[in-house]
Amino acid sequence: MQRKLRKLIIAAIVILLMLPTGISAEENTEPEHALDVHSLSERYEGSFDIGAAVEPAQLDGVQGEILKRHYNSIVAENVMKPINIQPEEGKFDFEEADKIVEFAEENNMDLRFHTLVWHSQVPEWFFLDEKGNPMVEATDPNQQRKNKKLLLTRLKKHIKKIVKRYGDKVDSWDVVNEVIDPNASNDRGLRESQWYQITGTDYIKVAFETVRKYADEDAKLYINDYNTEVEPKRTYLYNLVKDLLAQGVPIEGVGHQSHIQIGWPSIDDMETSFNMFAELGLDNQITELDVSLYGWPPRPAYETYEDIPQEEFERQAERYDALFELYERLGDKISSVTFWGIADNHTWLNDRAKDYNDGVGVDAPFVFDTDYNVKPAYWEIID
Ligand code: GLA
Fold first, then answer.
1. Could you tell me the pTM of the whole model?
2. Which residues partner with 254 through β-bridges?
């Protein structure tokens, strides 16, 4: 009987001792919210800024708080693009863009402007002659000359208006976006956009010169593109930049969009690219970082998940670890790392994932998840 009692008492003590351990084990697996963890921008202070692309609606509430805590630089996801700012000739709309500019000022954040010139999200009126005909269809050399002049005048007006408004507020200007196309039929890999067909490369020169004329002298001017790590695009971009610099065009940095994937491109290719441009005396910025879980090109090469397995987040974390190790090692050649979003609940990659898998699937490219909790990738880049 006594032995039985002793056993019971011992069992009770053991249970009591285990209880707190059980509770704390549970606590350890609770997800940690982005607002409860150490700031990313503080972690990388002295190396580079940490930025996020946003829509004005994301500046309030929890997203606004996360922006203030983790990011010290900001860029508009859409509202500063040509079609948003000057949808009709002479009718400028700065309402939405102003909200982002004000948020940056109030919170002492750097501001990137994206983008003054692009072949996409640009209103068609830019490329119509005085009679409303598409400039690219002109065959008469006189008309072609007139078109070129008109288009460059419109370009200068667009840029002047914006840069005069935001000149003392913007730190980095994406002056031109995506002017290289390795599949173009010319041998320099120049994108054969309407800009190019009508003006050759003069639109690039005029754009940079006009921004330089009106921008704050500390503001830096960037040429921005994707797949800047990948040959032959990297070399096409390098050759163009070198050529423009030789002509005195005021390019100060290369924006590497960095819409990348877990397994592509290689860290070595990125390093080579940053070093190539740094050797030309230019700054590098990572301007649109997201790390997709999926391959490219799409189907049948991949299928997208509806429920992402945990091991994918672990693989993504290793990728983020390698990326930020590289960025930090090259910190004197990279002044800013901007994510193309804040958290996994808002990313253009979800549309892409769905587009290529019959409307099914999600992507998850960032270090904060859809509920603003930190992911394994966060822990890799914060330590
Ligand atoms: C490009 C552009 C961005 C954005 C992304 C996709 O990278 O530079 O402005 O449109 O595509 O959303």
1. 0.91
2. 223, 284
